[in-house]
């Protein structure tokens, strides 16, 4: 529990800080997709250098994934992650943080659906109830009738769909024992996924921002020629994005895609409360009711998860008493635990 709280305490400041940093940056440098492409390059360089240092210190070569396996597993993650981040940053040009959060709340529905399709979760009525309750609560919490922008809304919903695909496949790879080349450490995952993310974002940069891609626009910030400052600001955002993505994968390895989504929603609530405070907005009764529903949904999820854990304990005790130690299920569980402990170390 302490380990989870520590990871969450790292994830929240990074994620909230990056959201406000990006919103602030693109107000004066209106090339959000190019900025994201710069973040991908920064993340890949940082992860590669750190991984090389770890290999030298530990004198142990880390996992390398063949291209064929990357095409099968990592390319879908990279493309969906790139579209998720790229579309989200693009949408921030047209919508407020409140509307963005309201629309992105549907991502938990997509994650539940894809988790069921990939058999990462078993269908339970409580699972659907939790997801709908949280999504509805966050929708009402961010409700503003004057904020609607159809173009921005469509972009955010497409990003939410990509979120669902991204995290369910990532969970399948990082937690599954039967994958041919499992990536169980966040550092290895970042190194292998970033190139695919960069390849996926490039066409979007040229299609969407082609008219702005000229020397003057690229090097002008606040109506002044400041290319070095622009590079520094993109690099700083990339460092934040790298640290945040590492913390996301750490949470995914230790929890699940659905739990990560719920933790992300808590982060979105914190972001919105900060936005309300900084911009002097007032919460309406509908907003307060939505926040209550959101918190209730999270409490139901936590309670149901704890209840399932408690139910497994007597089942394991019974199986260890009455079932021989050579039973395949116990061997599988022991192997899974050993694998997880091995790959958890840097």
TrEMBL record:
The chain crosses the membrane at residues 33-53, 73-91, 97-118, 125-144, 228-244, 251-274, 286-304. One of its GO terms (cellular component) is membrane. It is found in: Membrane. It comes from the Eukaryota. Residues 3-301 form the Sugar phosphate transporter domain. It holds the Pfam family TPT. Keywords: Membrane, Transmembrane, Transmembrane helix. SUPFAM superfamilies: Multidrug resistance efflux transporter EmrE (SSF103481). It is a multi-pass membrane protein. The keyword Metal-binding does not apply. This is Sugar phosphate transporter domain-containing protein.
